[in-house]
Structure formats: C-alpha cells, structure tokens
Inverse folding.
C-alpha cells in the first residue's frame, strides 16, 4: 500500500494545496519570476523535501536535499542534505517535526542569491544563498502553515506572504540577516474566513505581484478571491475570480502582458461521485485583474491525452487532473507552458499509478493542442507503473541546464524503494518540440545517500 490517496484528497478540494525559439518572443507579465539559483551560477537548482525522513534516529524529523543545476543537468553526484541537525540551521531535530513540510524561495536579502524558506511544525527558517550554495539559517518569527514568495509592491525585492492568526500578512523585503522585514502589512479576515491557499503572480501587468486566495466555509468551497498588489502593498479589498478553485499558479500563457490564473476547479463534486476527475480553469488576466475570459480544460478537451475518470467509493479518488501545477517555457517559444499532475490516473488496469500532462501556451491561450503525457509506463521513463504510486503528485518546471528551455521535474513521494513510500524524482528535458525522454535523470534517497525509510522524498519541490 502506497499511503492515503495523494495525502488527503478531501483537503485538496476544500483548501489547497506557491527566450528564443525561432518565433518573436511575445509580451509577458513584467515581473517574471527569477530561477531558483542558490549559488548564482545561472543554472536552476532543486530543493526536494522529505518530511518523513528519519534524522538522528527520530522518525519524521524531515530533511531537504539540494541538487544544483549544471550544463549536464541536475547534479545528483554532489547533493547537499539539510536538516535541523545541520550546522548553521537553527532549531532542534524533533520527532514528527517534518522539516521541509512547506517551502518558499526568493532573494530575501537582495544579495543576488536565492534563499530558501523552510517550514515545519515550528517557526519557519530561512537558509541563505551564497556563491557556495545554501549556508547558515535564521529563524523567522511566527509559526505559519503557509508561506509564499513574490514582489507585492513591485520594488524589485522579494516579499513573503503568510497566513497568520490575524489574517493575511505581507512581510516586505529586503530582509535583514536576522530575518526582520523592511515593513509588514496585515489584512484581517472575519472569523472562519482565513485563506487555505495562496497563488502569487502579476495578473494586472503593472510589475507588482497580486495574489489569489482559496477559501472554504464550513468545509464548503467558496469562490477564490483576487487581491491587487501595488506600490502601497496589497489592496484592502478583494474581488471574486468567479470560480471555485484551489491553489493554482499565475503565468502569462497567451503573451498579452497579463498573468493568467491556472487552477484546479473544484465545484463539480456531487453526492454520487466522491471526487472530480479534474478540471483546469484558466482565468485570463487584464489591467483590472481576473477578466471574464476563461477556459476549461479536462482530459476530454481535444488534444489532451487520456480519458477523464471519476472516483468511486472503492478507489476514493478520480484522475485528479490538476492536483499539482507548474509553469515554464519548455519549448523556448516565449510562451509559458503548464505541467499538470494527474496523480490518480489509471494506467491500463493499474489504479492510481499517476501521470503528468504538458499543456502548451500560445497566442490563443492554453489549449489541448500539442499536449503531451508521461507516466512510468512511457517508453524511456525509468521505473514501472504501480498501484498507488501517484506519479505526478508534485511537479515543477525549471531550466536545470540553462538552455532556455524549462525541464519537467516530477516527484512521487509514494514510490517504493527498498522501503515503502521512500519517494523518487524524475527530470525530463525540455526541447524545441516539447518534453523528451532522452537523457532522463531519476533519483531517490538511496541515490543521494539520504535516509530512505518512509521518507516521502519529493513531497514538495521548492519554487
């Protein structure tokens, strides 16, 4: 048994789940996110969490594996493992501490290196980037279950958006090395109306990131809300996106200069069908935020591989098309593409083996045209499809070899190695024609010399 279906699907549905190529590059939202580059060498680096890993004999203490990018791709020969026991990392190793439970990235202190914010069941910690990679850390005040990074006031400094007991809080950069922000803004919410998830990106095209929050009321999903960013921080009021969505990502998939919200729509659950097969809702951006132009994409959309599958009372989940999402320009045409995790996908008779679908961006927006699908039964992909693997539970698009084409990183924390639920990661290269199975890199805890037993390696990929 590979664990609970994608680590509690019910939580997903009510909460959440953070160039060139021969064509003229389209307009893009002004503040496209910089690559995650902890050592500043120009190659995207990976931070892979394993919150179930045993550290210093304490189960589920958790760790993070840092893998640096290179001209040859992800360097698995020189990983760096970080735990609460690592010199310079504040705090103590704790049983069930789940170090790496949540992550966020950005250049918090403005020194040109990406920093890593790590959350667990204690106060979050920032690990500072440098020419030698991540080094000493600083504990940030106030425990929180949600931390995302962006530039909310458009001043070029990374800000942190956190969910606090008081409501939604923005901690504006630059941060001091003691973890103190330049200033703080708090937007209080009424009782029971705290956001469950936060997506960050510039939907208005003004150079300042906006946020979209996911909400539920008494376990009933509510429509997500848009909050505009600007030179004075977040707006004090919000407006509805018009759709019940969870989490999501923001990227300018049609190149018109406005970021678009891509999220899983979750308002189609009915009493006789436990969970939706999966629907992606695209809400296109405009100068005022979410516009009335939207699109719906499922596995029934022309060009999208696979067939929509609803859950039932035996399987307890459907395809979950859109459970995880990531954006990046895979083919180098200047338009962001979208990686869609489908962790509940059945491969033949193998239940919940999982898959990933790549949707291509373009001038017409996000469609099924040219979509690709990959799973562990795809020729060239290492491993094999197994029941309950949930391949595609976590996805990321990052240019690990700096060739101006994003690569797909797929993490599957319920993959079995010597032990159940040890986890594994695959990196598929981007190319002019899209993703390719040539030169795939795959690795797990054993490859890196890391703790393996029930580590859930790949539970999160920092972005």
């Amino acid at each position: 048994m590979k664990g609970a279906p994608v680590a509690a699907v019910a939580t997903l549905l009510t909460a959440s789940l953070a160039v060139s190529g021969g064509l003229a590059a389209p307009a893009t939202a002004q503040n496209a996110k910089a690559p995650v580059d902890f050592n500043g060498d120009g190659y995207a680096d990976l931070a892979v969490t394993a919150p179930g890993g045993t550290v210093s004999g304490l189960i589920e203490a958790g760790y993070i594996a840092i893998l640096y990018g290179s001209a040859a791709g992800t360097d698995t020969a020189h990983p760096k493992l970080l735990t609460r026991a690592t010199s310079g990392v504040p705090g103590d190793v704790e049983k069930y501490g789940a170090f790496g439970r949540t992550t966020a990235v950005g250049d918090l202190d403005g020194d040109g290196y990406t920093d890593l914010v790590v959350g667990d069941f204690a106060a979050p910690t920032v690990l500072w980037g440098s020419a030698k990679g991540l080094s000493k850390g600083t504990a940030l005040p106030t425990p929180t279950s949600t931390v995302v990074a962006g530039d909310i006031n458009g001043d070029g400094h990374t800000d942190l958006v956190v969910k606090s007991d008081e409501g939604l809080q923005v901690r504006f950069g630059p941060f001091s090395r003691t973890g103190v922000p330049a200033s703080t803004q708090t937007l209080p919410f009424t009782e029971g109306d705290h956001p469950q998830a936060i997506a960050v990106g510039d939907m208005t095209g003004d150079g300042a990131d906006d946020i979209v929050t996911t909400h539920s009321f008494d376990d009933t999903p509510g429509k997500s809300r848009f909050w505009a960013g600007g030179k004075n921080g977040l707006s004090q009021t919000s407006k509805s996106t018009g759709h019940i969505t969870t989490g999501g990502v923001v990227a300018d998939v049609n190149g018109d200069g406005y970021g678009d919200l891509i999220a899983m729509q979750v308002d189609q659950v009915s009493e006789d069908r436990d969970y939706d097969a999966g629907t992606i809702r695209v809400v296109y951006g405009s100068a005022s935020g979410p516009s009335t132009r939207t699109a719906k994409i499922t596995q029934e959309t022309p060009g999208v591989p696979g067939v929509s599958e609803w859950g039932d009372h035996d399987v307890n989940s459907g395809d979950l098309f859109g459970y995880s999402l990531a954006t990046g320009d895979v083919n180098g045409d200047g338009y962001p593409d979208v990686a869609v995790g489908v962790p509940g996908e059945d491969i033949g008779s193998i239940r919940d083996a999982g898959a990933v679908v790549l949707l291509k961006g373009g001038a017409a927006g996000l469609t099924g045209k040219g979509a690709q699908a990959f799973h562990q039964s795809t020729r060239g992909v290492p491993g094999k499809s197994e029941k309950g693997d949930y391949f595609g539970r976590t996805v990321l698009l990052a240019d690990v070899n700096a060739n101006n084409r994003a690569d797909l990183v797929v993490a599957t924390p319920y993959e079995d190695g010597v032990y159940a639920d040890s986890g594994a990661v695959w990196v598929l290269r981007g190319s002019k024609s899209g993703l390719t199975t040539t030169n795939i890199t795959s690795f797990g805890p054993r490859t890196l010399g890391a703790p393996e037993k029930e580590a859930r390696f790949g539970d999160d990929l920092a972005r």
Remarks:
- The helical segments are 9-14, 445-448.
- The two ends are 29 Å apart (CA to CA).
- Residues 85 and 93 are 6 Å apart (CA to CA).
